[in-house]
Amino acid sequence: MLTLVTGTTGQVGRRFVPRLLAQAGPQERVRVLVRDAARGERFAELGAEVVLGDLRDEAVLGKAVAGVDAVVNVAASFRGVPDDEAWAVNRDAALDLGRAALASGVQRFVQVSTGLVYGLGRGRPLTEDDESRPGGGMWGAYPAAKAEAERGLLALAGLDVRIGRLAFVYGEGDPHLAQSLRWAGSWAAGQRLQMVHHADVAQGLLRLLHAPGVAGRSYNIADDAPVTAVELHQLNGVDVPAALYERTDPEPFLQMTSTDRIRRELGYRPVYPSVYAARAAGAL
């Protein structure tokens, strides 16, 4: 089995690929797509095949998927990029990759998506059967493009597509935890963020990659304990602004997702069920 991984130099990909390589069996190989040869050296040293090029280059896609059995599309562009780039990478390139994979005979395609695709809340934890409802404070080009990529990939007849919707990813030196204060500083004190550690992102994606009989299924990947705006400040060692206590959370279940499906169907159990478990283990 040969698995292609894209987005390997991003925060998720650079941590996922070593774990994929570490659990690979004797007949399993990994190929990575990178734009910079120097950034691919680490993966080559770990045993991965390296293909150079841009995900948005049609000729590169053909080379990248040649002989591949499975694809894990981690590539994403978000947080501060222009809207046209967000659409180009998160929707257009994902769909081009899916079509190239289908034409090449790829058997499985894992699309890494985001819990932000749900948009507005429902007054309860969101499930994979909930449709996307654009809107809310976290909506923008990134989740809109990811939502359209999901729909387009699932519509490719003959391609076994599995979708993993990630909560807010953190851990292992990832700067995302510190970056959470960009939003949490303007939240209400009790407003919550659902999170997932890189170890559990990898666990979830590996389960999606290897599970039989889950074509066309989507899975939320998250931990068990969303954290409040107050806790995010405390975790980052920052004083809690007094204004947080003067605000009211307008939608307590915004971006809160259920992990019942991935637990029930794929046996997922978070290694780090909370950010506090990760901190105690020295895994922040």
Assembly of the depicted chains: single chain
Provide a count of the helices. 11
Uncertain regions spanning at least 5 consecutive residues: none
Q: Give the number of DSSP strands.
A: 11
How would you describe the overall organization of this protein?
The radius of gyration is 19 Å and the shape is globular. Helices cover 37% and strands 17% of the residues. It is built from eleven helices and eleven strands. The model has no long low-confidence stretch (mean pLDDT 96). With 284 residues, the chain is α/β, with parallel strands linked by helices. It has a seven-stranded parallel sheet with strand order 3-2-1-4-5-6-10, sandwiched between helices. Strands 7-9 form a two-stranded parallel ribbon. Strands 8-11 form a two-stranded antiparallel sheet. α2 (37-46) links the parallel β2 and β3 (49-52). The longest helix has 22 residues, at 83-104. α1 packs across α8 (198-210).
